[in-house]
Amino acid sequence: MAGIFISYRREDTAGHAGRLFDRLTQHFGKVRIFMDVSDIEPGTDFVEAIDKAVGSCEILIVVIGREWLTCREPGGQRRLENPNDFIRLEAATALKRSIRVIPVLVQGARMPKSAELPADLEKLSRRQGIEISDTRWDSDTGQLIKALEAALAQESEAKPAPKLEERPSQLQTKDKRKVFAPLVAIASVVVLAIGGWLLWPKKVEVPRLTGSSLETAKALIEDRGLLLGIVSERETERGSPGAVLAQQPPAGNRVEKKTAVDLVVASAPKIAVPDVIGKTFEEAKAAMKNAGLDVGKSVRQESTEKAPGVVLAQQPAAASRVERTTKVDLVVAVAPKIIVPQIVGKTSTDAEGALRQAGLVSGMKTTRESSEASGIVLSQRPAAGQALDRGARVDFVVAIPAAIAVPNVVNLPIDGARLALEKAGLAVGNIRETSSNASSAGTVLSQGPNAGTKIKPGTRVDLLVVAKFPSSGEIDVPDLRKLPLDAARTKLKEAQLAPGRTQYRSVEGTPGTVYAQRPAPPAKAKTGTSVELFAVAVPPLYAAGYYDVAGGRSVDLDVLRTKELNVEVDIGFKVESAAQRYIEVLNGAVIAIGGKRPAGREACAAARLSNKRILVDEALVGTYICARTNRGRHSEFLLYEIAGSSPGTFRIRFVTWQ
């Protein structure tokens, strides 16, 4: 009877080979399927044993998993490189004897290339393989069974029945036999009758074997000169496992010696293994428990087709009948690991996009002073190339410009102060003029930030300069209301007064004209005094100006004044300690940190705003911040100075659009 031999490597595909064995024996019968070359007795030449076992079959199935080709011995050598490797011997023997070899690929394995195989296995790479997937097990093994049936039919047709031909000498003697045949027949009958009477064998009585153990039954059979026939098992709770339940021929019958005695032996009741493929691991455990079985080993296998925790395979296979002590091993799906992308060298925004695209999440983002461009990622943790679960966090460090100590420009001429600031990598900010008899015109009286303060490169430093007006007695402050701003500033200079800060607000009047001033007529002022102007905002401007805000105070970005905390304010400056000062958003307003240059109305409207408070430190000085007021208007303000010792006064310049 033609047989099928299954060759597999235990470390690679024991579970799949077991399932395949069960499937094929279910279709072809157990006597036609062979699996393993086992129980080779000591002293036996295992090469000859394998040659004999493989040679007795018509077809060799080679089960190839992901580690079939690369599995290594303890010394590091590939097992296929060992000439005495059982798996290599089995396949090489079949190829050498022209036995049909069918590679069966499991676990998504690929067909080995000729260059990857030893010389005696190179032909294996040219054999057409069959791929069997865990998710298409029934259909794929069905295709394999069809291929095996076709191959077995071809092998059977290739072996015609032997044909005997008569030789001439036989034809010549046939006539002579016709003459002597009757005489020979008569003589034979006489001889057989006499010999039968003398040699007729004596019969022996079949012993009672029921209730005996199988070993005792074997001994009793041999003692009577009988042979052990077919031993089959019957599941029963009556009698201990291994005890003889029935025999054929029955006890007491007289039979000839060497008659085979068949036995039925008791076995413990077996349990049908439930089908848990496709169930979750917890559901599978519950199903096994309900069936009276336990889960054995649980092997994790990455899968893109099944959800994590779903059972992909089981061993023994579903519907197999096993003893109660049998443990069922499971293969459970896990989500494929995600390889961390390289984000070092990217901008912070690009790094977050790369992580998001890979299925990871941006973790803690910290900053470090560096000569690299601002916003470039300097390092990451975990490093690129590591495998993480989907949704894991990746922390990274972003470059910020190294802080610069503000030089002391007090008492320098304005041109000298400008040169010193630019040489240090800083810029001149707002220049305000004031009168002074202590210093000459154009001399810097104060600066902000103060000398020695660490700030970012490019930050603007505001200066207070002695006005270029002669110091004299008080003069009348001119009325500037309804004048265009340029005309109002010219009129102040003509009056030997200095134009001060200009603030804007949406009020009635001609856009760009002065609607209020401080001080206002009929006040008198010293020569060189700064006069603050309030102008009608030019659309789309709604309000603009400056605030000096003490800690604990709040600001309404829609109007030109600071307030105590109430429903109209937008931002507040909260001081928790000398080192913990915050800009907080109030009454539904939202903000977002910008850059060192003004963003403008459109960019602020598109910015991702939030209600999270912002820590105020020296690094924030010189930074523009976008906002949306509690009345829904878009605004932008600059924290350009923190005056005085902590908590200090927060000086901001802002603009709010209609």
Which CATH class of the largest domain applies here?
Alpha Beta
Helical content stands at 10-25%
Task: Give the total of beta strands.
Answer: 40
Number of H- or I-type helical stretches: 11
CATH topology of the largest domain: Rossmann fold
User: At CATH's second level, what is the architecture of the largest domain?
Assistant: 3-Layer(aba) Sandwich
Residue-averaged pLDDT, rounded?
84
Distance linking N and C termini: 95 Å
Q: What strand line-up does the widest sheet have?
A: 28-30-27-31-40-39-38-36
CATH superfamily of the largest domain: Toll/interleukin-1 receptor homology (TIR) domain
Strand content: 25-35%
- Low-confidence parts, pLDDT < 50 over ≥5 residues? 161-176
The helix/strand class is alpha+beta
Net shape: rod-shaped
Whole-number count of domains:
6
> Radius of gyration, Cα only, in angstroms?
49 Å
Sum up the structure in keywords.
11 helices; rod-shaped; 6 domains; alpha+beta; about 650 residues; Rossmann fold; Trypsin Inhibitor V, Chain A
Provide a descriptive summary of the structure in words.
This protein has 658 residues and is of the alpha+beta class. The protein folds into six domains: 4-157, 3-Layer(aba) Sandwich (Rossmann fold), CATH 3.40.50.10140; 204-267, Trypsin Inhibitor V, Chain A, CATH 3.30.10; 271-334, 2-Layer Sandwich (Trypsin Inhibitor V, Chain A); 338-400, 2-Layer Sandwich (Trypsin Inhibitor V, Chain A); 404-466, Trypsin Inhibitor V, Chain A; 539-657, no CATH class. 23% of the residues lie in helices and 31% in strands. The protein contains eleven helices and 40 strands. An eight-stranded mixed sheet has the order 28-30-27-31-40-39-38-36. Helix 2 (46-55) crosses helix 3. It is rod-shaped and about 160 Å long. 27% of the residues are buried. The model is unreliable at 161-176 (pLDDT under 50).
